[in-house]
């Protein structure tokens, strides 16, 4: 195949997207599998995927794969879920992946980085970046992280390649191999993987409607073996959508000081909660390493991880970033500075807040639930209408919800049944820690599919939940 023919293959895939055979959020095969399917060289497959990304039709997510990003409307309108192709090769509607994209986002980002294409600018940006980036980058990051009257000192800001690397560096700098890290009893699955690689033991800490309980944290630390640090998500906790109020944050800060503990505060999703309290770092500035990134605000493939740390811990954290090869790339760092400075970040964030609210209206409509005000800073709990509906916990500012399934369903069986009907959701066991019983719940990611496809998928899940699940009548202790 001629070198230019990769564009013809990209045209074929683009046609499949346009006809609705591939939908936004669908995962493409690995490049090697794609090459086998299309009978092309691996190098050609790489060029095809690069061309799809260049056209804005696909996005690559490190560690996850390549996903269809957008599709022009086809003449027949948006096909319903029931009309989509079925069978072993039919891609599911992915409600595990949570990658929000808003209309016009790529155009804004493209304009912001256009100056980087100048050879002199690109050459300078391509130089290796230090852990503390540049003065311009530190000031821009401080502005992005600022909220509720709090703004970090730019001198206390460091950078990683992405949010995951920022979390890994923060944990590694605070907890030695064999050490113990306290986490909410349900936590971000990536932290489980990071802890395993670092040789760190995770210790579950009980939560309530405002997240981690200070008394439970103190009890765990004063147990047989003390903690080295604690990882928390005080704002829009993933997966429970919990947000701690100011009093809870103050109480946690008091416990950290009393126990001489550091916290790793993950604020990755906090940008969606415009009215949330100041971060824990504002209440415990000498005890908190805050981590965040531009991945969810903008795009996972063009991102920068951001960290703030107390002055006493900055040097240790910077050395950890360097030794782990977790520092940010110079080009991404320069792009981030431009996106922060030209209003791109603010514009996209505002659009995603509106989009999240729209998607939660779809959740309420399709799952047939009523809203009940809950505790915390704006959190709500949504209870199903009837014993067979289960209970859905949401915050209308977030891009996910936590569904405690009806008692006749085990989570794994529900996930399998949903997959058979073309919808992928995440079982609660992915978030559970250690010996904790796997919860009879699933997390639903709301960000990736178009709103109409999301509605169809939620309708399928609601209908499925009303059915008697496999193993109905089995003792609840077996769930």
Write a brief caption for the model.
By secondary structure, the protein is of the alpha/beta class. The chain contains 16 helices and 19 strands. The model is unreliable at 70-80, 82-90, 373-387 and 471-479 (pLDDT under 50).
Describe this structure in words.
This protein is globular. The longest helix has 24 residues. The strands form five sheets. The chain has a seven-stranded mixed β-sheet with strand order 4-12-11-10-9-5-6, with helices on both faces. It is α/β, with parallel strands linked by helices and 479 residues long. Helices cover 38% and strands 16% of the residues. Helix 6 crosses helix 13.
Largest beta sheet: strand ordering: 4-12-11-10-9-5-6
Total beta strand runs: 19
Helix % is 25-40%
Overall radius of gyration: 23 Å
Number of contiguous helices: 16
Low-confidence stretches: 70-80, 82-90, 373-387, 471-479
Identify the overall geometry.
Answer: globular
């Amino acid at each position: 195949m001629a070198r230019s023919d990769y564009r013809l293959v990209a045209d074929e895939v683009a046609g499949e997207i346009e006809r609705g055979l591939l939908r936004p959020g669908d995962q493409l095969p690995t490049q090697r599998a794609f090459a086998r399917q299309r009978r092309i060289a691996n190098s050609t497959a790489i060029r095809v995927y690069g061309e799809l990304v260049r056209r804005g039709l696909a996005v690559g997510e490190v560690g996850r794969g390549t996903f269809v990003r957008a599709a022009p409307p086809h003449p027949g309108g948006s096909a319903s879920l029931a009309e989509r192709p079925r069978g072993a090769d039919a891609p599911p509607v992915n409600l595990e992946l949570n990658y929000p994209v808003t209309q016009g986002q790529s155009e804004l980002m493209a304009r912001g980085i256009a100056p980087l294409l100048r050879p002199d600018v690109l050459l300078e940006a391509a130089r290796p970046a230090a852990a503390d980036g540049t003065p311009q980058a530190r000031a821009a990051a401080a502005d992005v992280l600022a909220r509720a009257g709090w703004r970090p000192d730019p001198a206390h800001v460091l950078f990683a390649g992405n949010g995951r690397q920022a979390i890994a560096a923060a944990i590694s700098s605070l907890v030695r191999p064999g050490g113990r890290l306290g986490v909410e009893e349900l936590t971000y699955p990536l932290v489980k993987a990071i802890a395993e690689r670092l040789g760190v033991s995770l210790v579950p800490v009980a939560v309530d409607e405002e997240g981690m309980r200070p008394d439970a944290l103190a009890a765990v630390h004063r147990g047989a073996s003390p903690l080295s640090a604690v990882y928390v998500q005080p704002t829009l906790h993933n997966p429970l959508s919990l947000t701690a109020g100011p009093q809870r944050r103050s109480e946690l800060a008091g416990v950290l000081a009393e126990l001489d503990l550091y916290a790793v505060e993950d604020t990755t999703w906090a940008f969606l909660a415009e009215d949330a309290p100041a971060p824990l770092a504002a209440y415990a500035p000498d005890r908190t390493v805050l981590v965040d990134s531009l991945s969810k605000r903008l795009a996972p493939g063009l991102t920068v991880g951001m960290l703030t740390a107390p002055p006493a811990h900055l040097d240790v954290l910077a050395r950890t970033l360097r030794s782990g090869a977790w520092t940010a790339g110079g080009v991404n760092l320069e792009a981030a500075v431009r996106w922060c400075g030209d209003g791109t970040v603010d514009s996209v964030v505002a659009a995603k807040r509106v989009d999240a609210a729209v998607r939660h209206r779809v959740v309420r409509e399709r799952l047939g639930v009523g809203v009940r005000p809950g505790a915390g800073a704006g959190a709500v709990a949504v209870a199903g209408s009837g014993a067979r509906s289960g209970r859905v916990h949401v915050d209308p500012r977030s891009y996910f919800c936590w569904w405690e399934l009806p008692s006749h369903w085990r989570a794994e069986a529900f996930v399998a049944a949903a997959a058979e009907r073309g919808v992928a959701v995440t079982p609660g066991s992915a978030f559970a820690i250690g010996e904790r019983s796997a919860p009879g719940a699933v997390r639903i990611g709301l960000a990736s599919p178009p709103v109409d496809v999301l509605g169809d998928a939620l309708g399928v899940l609601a209908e499925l939940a009303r059915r008697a699940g496999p193993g109905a009548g089995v003792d609840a202790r077996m769930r």
